[in-house]
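User: I'm preparing a small set of examples for a lab meeting where we compare how different chains pack in three dimensions. I only have the primary sequence for this one, and I'd like the structure in token form so I can line it up with the others. Please keep the answer compact; I'll paste it straight into my notes.
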Amino acid sequence: MSEKPAITGVDCHAHIMAVDLPLAPEIHSRPTRDVDAEEYLAVLGSHGISHGVLIAPSFYGANNSLLLDALRRYPDRLRGTVIVDPSSSHLEQELLQMREQGVVGIRLNWIKKKAIPNIDSADYKRLLALAKDLDLHIELFLEDHLQELVVPKILASGATLVLDHFGNPDPKFGMQSKSFQNTLHGLADGKVWVKLSAPYRLGFLEGISIQGYVDALVAANPKQLVWASDWPWLSYENRFTYADCISWIQSAIPNTKVWNDILINNPKSLFHFE
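Assistant: Understood. Below is the structure token output for the 274-residue chain.
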């Protein structure tokens, strides 16, 4: 029996994709090339990162076949977060089976929708209850001004909440964004996890500093922060490197112990790496 690889770092948000898979309706991005697990793992290895978390891209809807196949083939190095149909009559069975395959969370990618789903519906109440009971986190990607309609309901369910990309504050309001302030409170209370990822989605490439965001998040609760690359950077391809994605965050966190927690120890716990 081969030994499991030592955890030298966990990239907590990346995508694989295939251009020939059918696309879901109402998409805001689409795959531009085939990207497989082997390419991703090679990128990780070349940068000293041992483990990764594959995130279901929104454009496949609840079709998680590509992601699940990667988890089956690399169970010691990969975990996954899926998109599911909350109205499925076999939802619990489906989630149980996916959890056995390495799925650790359910993604609510509600960004850029004409209307967000009703988090108070019976279907979503059932989904949140199942997430809590099965120890699957809820990962949310949603516009700043809409988060207050959704985040309190997720927290009230008892499910673990993970927020993408610094919590996705609106760059127009920056750190004074109401949702970012709520994120800080949720972190401080131990109710919310945040991915330090994709600063370019906050205007970083146009000169907006992330230092204030990082300082505030670390001050609130460094034990519930994780790092991610957002590879292969949909809509931002070829504008920077994977090494940049590491250095941007690492350089903003001078405390080596805090950085090691964010890179290794925190995600090891959150995503159930042994």
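A couple of notes for your slides: The first strand starts at residue 10 and ends at 14. The beta strands are 10-14, 51-55, 78-82, 103-109, 137-141, 161-163, 192-196, 225-227.

User: Perfect, thanks.
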